[in-house]
Amino acid sequence: MAARLASIIPAKGSNLRTGLLALVLALAMLGLGFAAVPLYRIFCQVTGYGGTTQRASAETAGAVKVAAGSISVRFDANVDRGMPWKFAPEQTTQTMRIGARKMAYFKAENLSNKSITGVASFNVEPELAGKYFNKVQCFCFSRQTLRPGQSIDMPVIYYVDPKILDDPETRDIEQITLSYTFHIAADDPSKALDRAGPAR
Questions:
Q1: Helix (H, G, I), strand (E, B), or coil: what is residue 28?
Q2: Is 176 among the domain residues?
Q3: How many CA atoms lie within 13 A of 181 on its CB side?
Q4: Half-sphere exposure of 55 (CA within 13 A, CB side)
Q5: Can you give the residue range of the structural domain that contains 110?
Q6: In terms of DSSP bridges, do strands 70-79 and 175-184 run parallel, antiparallel, or are they unpaired?
Q7: Is residue 59 in some structural domain?
Q8: Same-domain pairing of 69 and 15
């Protein structure tokens, strides 16, 4: 790329030529920096890297054939340090037929005296199962705002793709752990106050 640019830019004025090349390369690096996060997110969703789960429509889920095998799903819930919420699964595990849709519930409660908006991050263990774990509906797809003392039940509808049985690395998995962690949303006013520190 640099050689092609060098042939386009006039040879006279070597300082100008070097400066233009450096500017073009800097802009290219800046563009790659902005693209890195969405590209990494797409890579994780496609490959299941890092335990990233998949997202499926109701139509896609309805077309999946239920397999003969079954699998256990364990649920884990956490809140980020400093977030005054109580957050827990309403069931510890579910055993399900592979390919069948299942619904699980999580309960969140705001223990503070102010409204707080949270966002949930998630992953599954073992990580290799991520590309076969599909969520049809999930509270993690959107922000959740709870008023002081408010509690809500939040559902997740999911299924495990029967292709997990065709993969030599995943076909012997007996249990998948679905884990969520709630964080205070970056633009939540309470987070801005925390960053500003105590009033003087």
A1: helix
A2: yes
A3: 7
A4: 10
A5: 51-191
A6: parallel
A7: yes
A8: no
Single pTM value for the model: 0.68
Q: Is the dihedral of CA 34, 132, 53, 102 positive or negative?
A: positive
Domain presence at residue 43: no
Structural domain contains residue 196: no
Task: Read off the CATH number of the domain in which 100 is found.
Answer: 2.60.370.10
Question: Furthest-apart CA pair in the chain: how many Å?
Answer: 73
Q: Which amino acid is at 121?
A: S
Q: Angle CA(143)–CA(149)–CA(153) in degrees, nearest 5? A: 50
Rounded to whole angstroms, the Cα distance separating 110 from 154 reads 14
pLDDT tens across 141-179, in order? 889 999 999 999 999 999 999 999 999 999 999 999 999
Cα–Cα distance measured from residue 24 to residue 57, given in angstroms and rounded to the nearest whole number: 42
CA-CA distance, 186 to 93, in Å (whole number)?
31
